[in-house]
Design brief:
The protein is α+β, with helices and mostly antiparallel strands. The chain is built from 4 helices and 8 strands, in the order ααββββαββββα. A hairpin with a 3-residue loop joins strand 6 and strand 7.
């Protein structure tokens, strides 16, 4: 019989997401990804608008690659928040459908949910949007390998 799940500690999870995700993945720090919210199996992050992250200077819209990195990081965080204990993970597959262009000069928010955790693979879905999650810029489906080799996020965060 599996051991009972401990209550989700939102403040601690946000703290780990804010520090460890930036330390463990330098791209997250370079993009200035912000941890906004989380819950069991759910993560919300924001990618601030910056001129150096724009794909086409004439349009002023964040580059699709930066938005993909946001969705990947947010999806990975949702997997961590669904696991009974933190272990290294790796993205196996991330499919993103871009539904419309981002708005020029606006930050993008992503919300990801880990909806299934198997023995070796976790499954996520996510959306990227500006102000209204019901009006997404992009949607994604992802799969993540669980317990890959590497340092634990919690150990890196000093826990």
């Amino acid at each position: 019989m599996p051991e009972p799940r401990k209550p989700f500690d939102r403040e601690r999870a946000l703290s780990v997401m804010a520090s460890a995700f930036r330390t463990m993945v330098p791209l997250n720090a370079a993009l200035d990804l912000e941890a906004i919210d989380c819950d069991f199996g759910v993560s919300v992050m924001r990618l601030p608008w910056r001129a150096d992250l724009v794909g086409n200077p004439v349009r002023g819209v964040l580059h699709g690659g930066a938005i993909t990195a946001l969705v990947d990081a947010c999806s990975g965080a949702s997997v961590f928040f669904a696991l009974p204990k933190p272990v290294p993970i790796a993205t196996l597959d991330l499919r993103i459908d871009y539904l419309k262009p981002a708005t020029p000069h606006k930050a993008v928010t992503a919300r990801a949910e880990c909806y299934r955790v198997g023995r070796n693979v976790a499954f996520t879905r996510a959306i990227a949007y500006h102000d209204d999650p019901s009006d997404p810029i992009a949607s994604s489906a992802g799969t993540f390998m669980i317990a890959t080799k590497g340092d634990s996020v919690m150990r890196k965060a000093g826990s």
